[in-house]
Amino acid sequence: MSRGPSSEPAHGAAEEAGRGPELVAQILRSAPERLGAHMGGLYLLSDDRQLLELVMTFGAARQFTRPWQHVGMTVPIPVVDATRGGRVVWVGGAEEMARRYPRVAVAMPYSFCLAAVPLVAGSTTYGALFLLWPATHPPELAPRERDALELLARRLTEVLAEAARAGRPVRPGPVPVVAENRSADPFTTMPARLPEGMCDIDLDGRLAAVTPAAAELLGEPVEKLLGGRPWSVLRWLRDPVYEYHYRAAVIGGQPTSFVALRPPDRWLSFRLFPDASGVTVQIVAADVARPDGQGEQPAERAVHTRPGALYHLLHLASALTEAISVQDVVTMVSEQILPAFGGQAVAVLMAEGGRLRIAGHRGYPPGLVDQFDGTSLSESTPGVQASTNPVPAFFETRAELERLYPDRHETQDGMAAWAYLPLVTSRRLIGTCVLAFAEPHHFDTEERAVLTSLGGLIAQALDRARLYDTKLVLAHGLQESLLPRALPVVPSLEVSARYLPCTEDMDVGGDFYDLIRVGQDSVAVVIGDVQGHNVNAAALMGQVRTAVRAFAAADADPSTVLTRTNRLLADLDTSLLASCTYFCVDLTRREAWLANAGHPVPLLYGPDGRARALEPPTGVVLNVDPAAEYPQIRIDLPIGTTLVLYTDGLIDAPGTDPDQAVAGLIATLARHGRDPLDRLADALIGRAGQADHRTDDIALLLVRSVPR
User: Fold this and answer.
1) How confident is the model at residue 503 (pLDDT cuts 50, 70, 90)?
2) Residue 454 vs residues 77, 387, 423: alpha-carbon distances, Å
3) What's the predicted TM-score (pTM) here?
């Protein structure tokens, strides 16, 4: 029944909005019963919409999501894809996770299924919900499950929208809230999981209940065990492999087991039975044969770093492996590493020529960091100290920093805590990475260890990136030297050219174009592409371009130019192939002769406004058959005609059909054919010009017949 306008519904809506977090928790707690999911949580967009922040979890999600408590909107994980794409993201198992989201698979190497659902109301996106199922779940969501999932997300979105309208939006706290089922009694839930319950581990990994028999087997009183984590209170369980089994059970949602030695000589078998409220552990004495048959048992294993820190480090390390340039490294640190620790700003300083240089920074006010560029390594600053001493420095408050560096001007950055991480690679100190926090920050032992390790990983990534940047500059310089610096001015012709290098590697490509004055009233127009992206391709490209210019200067027709160039390549004893299109334009008669050696067909825009592809007889690519011939055709070039020559990088993008791409170019040419050439060139390049990833070079040459 619909309600009429009254103050009572408004009061009820306002009251419900004030209970936003409580209602969200109720909805999340219903997920196991409604959907069978045993773990999950809610992410909301930050105020600046650059981060997803973990607000609330259920099951054991909180302790496993620390690396993703604050997630940048460029991080390739399911909740980000769901939020950005506005669609449900389903990952049906470990293999699919490894294929689609390798970083998540590295950090959480367990078997489980996952769904991420965007929370959208109208034009407003609030964030995303994620849920985990055991690996026994089918690899696909059933239609009824998808409907129930979308209903759950819709209910969450309604609560969030109502709270926002009432001016009481649900926002993240210092740590994610656990939507805990307060009615769950460990001694009630244990029998439900296991016929003979022995002990219960809660969602934080702590022992919530221990039977006297379990305490006797473990060799410690119940009072000492309760509230502690097994691998903390029991020294002989501190090997990471045991916590790994616990994590595998919780995340995978399936029973698991292991055998451990309780010193000096008692073997115990542990069977773990998980559900959404915790883990029941059955412990029994194990009948294990002695390794040597003589009664001598293995020694107790050494204490290792907790697996949580290792997985966190693996996740962040996998992110750094994707960084290519120095700016990529800075971006990775600022968008993925910094949020994981709750930081506000980052600066990367490199030691060069006795001074610190700013390699990049994020999060600081404009201009503030730049004033420290060029700081002498002889000065006494924490940045210099970390760049000349391999020991990291952690300042949990401003007072700590100012006590050691009273004259430090960086305190004007508005931050309250800092981590200075030396960047050491191959035993060389190359600089420092500064993580800054807006509030005082306590660096516990685990966090210091992870950050210290990250300093080394960042250093290695930067070292690779600097080498890449250097080679990239050299490659682009070589590329530019092989292309004409400027095309000659020719009466009755307008010319425009574009060249876009590929972004997938740092090597120089083999694409080229040229405009050659052949005689008083004739000009040659050429474009080509040598196979490969390396120095050999670039060298051959230079030889082909030189050969074409030499044969053109001899006033040879297009067929002869390509035939002679083909024979030259055969004599050079190279296995590389090349394609080429050659025009010889008669400026007086306004006509051209065209020959083609396996190159993408040129396009023509006529004075009548019609755009079409030229279809010359196409010979084989150069350097296939030394005896190949290249027939030529004649075309008219009345005033207003535009020729479009391009290389295959413009039409061979991954996932694109070349024929459809050519049809798209013709359609663009028809729409913009009367535009100025520079504007037409930009239209034809289109989205390829803004693409972050290009797998091939793109060359484009436009020639228009105009009045003298």
Assistant:
1) low
2) 21, 15, 9
3) 0.52
